[in-house]
Amino acid sequence: MFPSFLEKLLGKADTSAKTVAKDRLRLVLMHDRADIPGPMMEEMRKELLTVLSKYVEIDEAALEVSLDRADETVALMANIPIRRVRPEKVEADAAEAEAKA
Amino acid sequence: MSTAKVIVITSGKGGVGKTTTTANLGMALASMGEKVALLDADIGLRNLDLVLGLENRIVYDIVDVVEGRCKLRQAVIKDKRLQNLGLLPAAQTRDKNAVTPEQMIKLVADLQEEGYTFILIDCPAGIEQGFKNATAGANQAIVVTNPEVSSVRDADRIVGLLEAQDIEEPMLIVNRLRPKMVKNNEMLGVDDVQEVLGNSVKLLGVVPDDETIITSTNKGEPASMIEGSKAGQAYRNIARRLRGEEVPFMNLEEDTGFFGKLKKFFVAG
Fold first, then answer.
1. What is the ipTM of this complex?
2. Can you spell out the DSSP letters for A46-75?
3. pTM value?
4. Which residues of A fall within a CB distance of 8 Å from B182?
């Protein structure tokens, strides 16, 4: 009882077996119900990566794409850790804007 | 037209308590005066007879009936404890395709003609042809699940497949709940299971994990016939709900520890 009280006090995430079970179930059911084939998810992940990489440097290993529920609809959730914005892209855009002006 | 309730008891995953549930609900309903037929559709893996303690009385089985080797009435075993409970046993040496959906529909119609008011069908585990055969004659379904990730996942899948079989709004039984573990956040609670499964299922009852299920199965005497069995009480409540009664859900989370008693004392006082 005491550790869980401490965790609450420190605002740590709820890692009880019940909460973990519920979260895992929720996610797996989302995938089961949406019925998106695994290879398609992987393809989507790769394409997202290609597009986004034009603008920012992404930590590929930490990129997470999954389905989740937002209110009543199923949503595609992507967690995309950015290492840095590509300066060359920023410069190129600035140059283009200048040329137009 | 007959008004019998034809309910298939299913789960997807094996070992969650379909057969135990079928036996207990059958006994409880029969003891309340209903004329009940239990139909073991788990062909090749016959077990309902054993849980009911009727294994020594089988002469003919479900496949003998559909293949015309005997009359339906000859195959249905009358329970000596409850005359209005009948069991149509599964065949043990055949496979799950031995009874087709059409034959199942015919069987159910014939049982209704015999005056049965409740027909409970014990479905085999899995989602293949055996499931389709077992569900073919049913107009309602009970989905049994345990408060545990894999059986809840399979229950969700089964709900979808039942819809495809035109069985709407299945009823949910959460079996083998351990209130103490739920209280300690170690096990999914009924509300968690319901929340995850969504509105597609309606909660019918909650059965606690109970040692009397093991002893009563060993003896072939379903727990719903045993006074003082918590699981038995839960099954009797479910049977009453199936008959249309409003029965409040059992308080499984009663705190009997020292602090619980202390709390009660103060609240009461």
1. 0.81
2. HHHHHHHHTTEEE-GGG-EEEEEEETTEEE
3. 0.82
4. 18
